[in-house]
Write a structure and sequence with these properties.
Layout lengths: L1 H4 L7 E2 L9 E2 L7 E2 L2 E2 H5 L1 E4 H5 L22 H19 L3 E5 H4 L6 H19 L5 E6 L18 H20 L4 E4 L5 E2 L7 H22 L5 E3 L9 E2 L4 H10 L6 E6 H6 L4 H10 L3 E5 L1 E2 L10 E2 L3 H13 L8 E3 L10 H27 L4 H7 L6 H7 L5 H8 L11 H11 L1
Parallel strand pairs: 1-2, 5-6, 5-16, 6-7, 7-8, 8-10, 10-12, 12-13, 13-16
Antiparallel strand pairs: 3-4, 9-11, 14-15
Helix pairs in contact: 4-6, 6-7, 7-8, 11-12, 12-13
Subunit structure: Homotetramer.
Enzyme class: isomerase
GO molecular function: magnesium ion binding; xylose isomerase activity
């Protein structure tokens, strides 16, 4: 099945900037050293199991366009095994270092939770066997607690404690598999952890439930010896009207309230940042500023559409700012760049799936190289250091350290006549353009 689906396609190789081959890398040279690490070790690409192998090309107004062979049969487990073969073939063709999955992406829902868990473990056995000889590793696993109708009112935030209990059983199984496959993180995406109307919602009750749910997950992580962080993925809306993990700032406040900052970090996505009214760079910088940065879903939205289009990330300038921030902080630890991205529903050929990944991997590589040069030359960092230089004086440091009262600072103000200084926005925009 896997070789037939990608019939005639050779493994993707680095061919250099002059290549016009859509299935050849122009900038992603995995062994090239960048800021002290191999490029592959900086970017840590992960293939998303759900969009690449599970999404059939549907939208709210149209049915399947991606008629994949492993989606057309009646035996759900047989199709899941076929899908695993295709997935690992694609990992091989792209030389991908990581992949990521939801439990329901890899194994079908059973007649009850026990059967669903058995299905998941059966496919995990296949993954485990394939990973013994494959290069690919697991960046993270997670549980789909938003697709089934039982979760229409949420999972951890559901008003029915039986649904909450079911969610605990499902997430435990997903965590167990993630741990067994040596996953480097575990992600919680609260697709329906929010509300559609306040007329039937007890916000405090639901937030307390979500806090308790995550606290139990953290306790279990430590109990089984899972070393990676739990990651929350912020998103403001869609499918719910309002989701409790709205943006980085909102999630930080939630984690602080429920004493989860030590064990829970954030998985940030460009498309979700835009839906929250922020730039991608804003959300990443804020996560670093609050010490909750974890990982990235590398995609983009459509500026003309107000929903989550999950397109492949191709904006080199935007990616450069992302990589500038990541490099500035020493690079990824357990996180990486996960392709939470869908090919368009008109891109129906098998090679389209590979071409999309190759093009986005190249865009990320270009951004990484530009960011390295900008940091080496202090192109953005230098002007920022200069702008805040006044805070390095002994008096300014004393103010921030709490060594001056309001009366003392106000008294010093009487002898001052501060004048504004240019923020040099257009100059800095021109600097960024020079590198990208």
């Amino acid at each position: 099945m896997s070789k037939e689906f990608f019939a005639g396609i050779e493994p993707v190789r680095y061919e250099g900037p002059d290549s016009t081959n859509p299935l050849g890398f122009r900038f992603y040279d995995k062994d090239r050293m960048v800021a002290g690490r191999r490029m592959e070790d900086h970017l840590r690409f992960a293939i998303a199991y759900w969009h690449s192998f599970t999404w059939p090309g549907t939208d709210p107004f149209g049915g399947e366009t991606l008629l994949r062979p492993w989606m057309q049969g009646d035996d759900a487990m047989a199709m899941a095994r076929q899908k695993a073969d295709v997935a690992f073939r694609m990992f091989e063709l792209l030389d991908a270092p990581f992949f990521a999955f939801h439990d329901r992406d890899v194994a079908p829902e059973g007649r009850n939770l026990s059967e669903s868990i058995d299905n998941l473990n059966a496919i995990a056995d296949i993954f485990e066997a394939k990973m013994e000889t494959a290069k690919v590793r697991l960046l993270w696993g997670t549980a789909n607690m938003f697709g089934h109708r039982r979760f229409m009112s949420g999972a951890a935030t559901n008003p029915d404690p039986e649904v909450f209990t079911y969610a605990c059983g499902q997430v435990k199984a997903a965590m167990d598999v993630t741990h067994r496959l040596n996953g480097q993180n575990y992600v919680c995406w609260g697709g329906r952890e929010g509300y559609e109307t306040l007329l039937n919602t007890n916000v405090k009750q639901e937030l307390d439930q979500l806090g308790r749910f995550l606290s139990m997950l953290v306790d279990y992580k430590h109990k089984i010896g899972f070393k990676g962080p739990i990651l929350i993925e912020p998103k403001p809306k869609e499918p719910t009207k309002h989701q409790y993990d709205f943006d980085v700032a909102t999630v930080y406040g939630f984690l602080e309230r429920y004493d989860l900052l030590k064990d829970v970090k954030l998985n940030i996505e460009q498309n979700h940042a835009i839906l929250a009214g922020h730039s991608f760079d804003h959300e990443v910088r804020l996560a670093y500023a609050m010490s909750v940065f974890g990982s990235i879903d590398i995609n983009r939205g459509d500026d003309l559409l107000g929903w989550d289009t999950d397109q492949f990330g191709m904006n080199v300038q935007e990616i450069t700012l992302l990589m500038h921030e990541i490099l500035k902080h020493g690079g990824f630890e357990t996180g990486g760049l996960n392709f939470d991205a869908k090919i368009r529903r008109q891109s129906i050929d098998p090679q389209d799936l590979l071409i999309a990944h190759v093009a986005s991997m190249d865009a990320c590589a270009r951004g990484l190289l530009a960011a390295e040069k900008m940091l080496d030359e202090k192109a953005l960092e230098g002007p920022i250091v200069d702008r805040y230089a006044g805070w390095n004086t002994s008096e300014a440091k004393a103010i921030l350290a709490g060594e001056r009262s309001l009366e003392q600072v106000a008294g010093a103000a009487l002898s001052l006549d501060p004048q504004p200084r240019s923020g040099r926005q257009e100059y800095l925009e021109g600097v960024l353009n020079r590198y990208t």
